[in-house]
Specification:
The complex is a heterodimer of chains A (353) and B (137).
Chain A: E1 4-14, E2 17-28, E3 32-36, H1 43-51, E4 58-63, E5 66-70, E6 73-74, E7 82-86, H2 97-102, H3 110-123, H4 139-151, E8 157-161, H5 169-186, E9 189-194, H6 197-203, E10 206-210, E11 216-220, H7 222-227, H8 232-236, E12 242-247, E13 252-255, E14 258-261, E15 270-275, E16 280-284, E17 292-301, E18 305-312, E19 321-327, H9 332-335, E20 338-342, E21 347-351
Parallel strand pairs in A: 3-9, 3-10, 7-8, 8-9
Antiparallel strand pairs in A: 1-2, 1-4, 4-5, 5-6, 10-11, 12-15, 13-14, 15-21, 16-20, 17-18, 17-20, 18-19
Chain B: H1 13-34, H2 41-65, H3 71-94, H4 99-121, H5 125-130
The chains are: A alpha+beta (353), B mainly alpha (137).
Chain lengths: 353, 137
């Protein structure tokens, strides 16, 4: 038996408007898969279908080899062995923290349920708050309780819908790190939905990227999605890209910063080259800079990194502008005369049209 | 250990048998990684890749023979998987010196096989059933 979640061929529509198109995925026990996509891409719909909150229209869903949904079969959510965690925590305000966690254990004797609830609160570091009510806790603490409640019944599958998007930036990194640790210890298959690529990169063993029309565009390790995006849409998920238009000639395309190798696209074909802001190597004159001479238009310190806007200084591409990300702060005056070249790992070439 | 459990069966024996063989190799690789016999991956991963490529060709010939209307799409999918297998080979080459590569290799092989290969092949199960080539349960 393959433990975990198996989704095959799920298509779904609301009022005739398709939101999922033949979506399939597999999550072995102990692994975490992220559905990454914009609003309206059907990712939450797929999670809700897996949970049984939405009735499946087409396809099949099995959890630990039990068919829980296919046309004509709908196992209710409470019988699927799932743990759910949402953005808004969904704790009962009138119950104490321990009673919130005990709530999903109603099939167990009360003393055993309470013991299990306390174990789970301990696992998420919230045992000291057992007697409090939700309004007495911070957002991050409430999310920890929500995780404890989701895991307390020992589910076969955990479903997380944008679980960290309601948290402050300062708290989010810590909570997601702790959540990932607890989920990995549990050995349970986890499906997480997010629109935040960085969150998906951090959490996922595998990412599935959904398009606007509910198709799975790419599946792979976070590194595959980042370094080998299958198309412009996937590449653009991670933010701003520098764009160059060109034509394939002798297996490469010209750019203002040298030729970029092209693989698998016909000669003479019009292409666009997308380059991540971090895909530039800057050197100064003192280092005998290799590359195209550039001048700095502006710098913007973001904390861990800086955005530097550059303009090509010479040659036929003079005036072409690029947005570059560099680690830490960047003092243009201190750097002197600069040259730039493109790091091929961060440049992606796709046919136009 | 991975198995070809019922929800992943096409119920067309030649292809199911190929999938079982691939699962067998993946299980050997995962066991070797777990047991610290990392050097065996240098042989087992290429075995997996070679057998997977032969499987893709056999499957494409079969689907062409039975007139599967989505053959081009499936063919294209196989070409993408060939590129993904290059990653596996690279991971196997670095597995001896990198714990991250070892962990990534085991995970990615299971995902690749169960999700990218076998789950994707279920797309043509209903076509084979319509053609009377299998009798789904």
């Amino acid at each position: 038996m393959m433990k975990g979640l198996h989704v095959h061929g799920v298509s779904h529509a609301f009022d005739g408007h398709p939101v999922l198109d033949n979506a399939s995925l597999t999550i072995p026990a102990g692994e975490l898969v992220c559905l990454l996509g914009p609003s309206g891409s059907g990712k939450s719909t797929l999670l809700r279908i897996a949970a049984g909150l939405e009735r499946l229209q087409r396809g099949r869903i099995t959890i630990d080899e039990q068919v829980v949904a296919e046309p004509g079969t709908h196992v209710p959510p409470e019988d699927r062995g799932i743990g759910l965690m949402f953005q808004d925590y969904a704790l009962f305000p009138h119950l104490t923290i321990v009673d919130n966690v005990t709530f999903g254990l109603s099939r167990q004797p009360r003393h055993r349920a309470r013991k299990r609830a306390m174990e789970m609160l301990e696992q998420v570091g919230m045992e000291g708050h057992a007697g409090k009510h939700p309004h007495m806790l911070s957002g991050g603490q409430q999310q920890r309780v929500a995780l404890a409640r989701a895991l307390a019944p020992e589910p076969r599958l955990v479903l997380l819908d944008e679980p960290f998007s309601g948290l402050d930036t300062s708290m989010r990194a810590k909570i997601r790190e702790d959540t990932l640790s607890v989920l990995k210890q549990s050995g349970i298959a986890t499906l997480m939905v997010t629109h935040d690529p960085e969150e998906a990169m951090f959490m996922a063993d595998r990412i599935k990227v959904l398009s606007h029309d509910g198709r799975i565009l790419q599946a792979g390790r976070p590194a595959d999605i980042y370094y080998q995006p299958v198309d412009e849409y996937v590449a653009m998920l991670f933010g701003h890209m520098n764009l160059i238009h060109g034509v394939v000639s002798e297996g490469a395309v010209d750019s203002p910063m040298g030729r970029i190798a092209v693989d698998g696209i016909d000669e003479g074909r019009a292409v666009k080259v997308l380059i991540r802001p971090e895909g530039f190597v800057l050197t100064n004159g003192v280092d005998g800079g290799v590359g195209t001479p550039v001048e700095v238009i502006s710098t913007h310190l973001l904390g861990h990194s800086s955005i530097v806007r550059l303009r090509v200084r010479e040659g036929k591409n003079m005036g072409a502008e690029f947005q570059v990300r560099v680690p830490g702060s960047f003092d243009a005056a201190e750097k002197g005369r600069l040259s730039a070249r493109i790091d091929a790992h961060h440049a992606f070439v796709y046919p136009e049209g | 250990m991975v198995e070809l459990s019922p929800s992943f069966e096409l119920e067309y024996q030649p292809i199911d048998n190929d999938h079982r063989r691939l699962i067998g190799i993946v299980n050997q690789i995962v066991k070797a990684l777990d047991d610290g016999r990392v050097e065996e991956c240098a042989v087992l991963v290429p075995d997996f890749v070679n057998f997977a490529k032969k499987h893709f060709l056999r499957e494409e010939a079969f689907l062409k023979k039975v007139g599967y209307p989505q053959l081009q799409k499936h063919y294209h999918h196989h070409r993408e998987l060939n590129a993904k297998m290059d990653t596996m080979v690279r991971l196997a080459q670095t597995a001896r010196d990198s714990e991250v590569a070892r962990e990534s290799l085991g995970k990615e092989l299971v995902f690749f096989l169960m999700d990218d290969v076998i789950n994707a092949d279920l797309d043509f199960k209903s076509y084979l059933a319509d053609k009377g080539l299998i009798e789904p349960r």
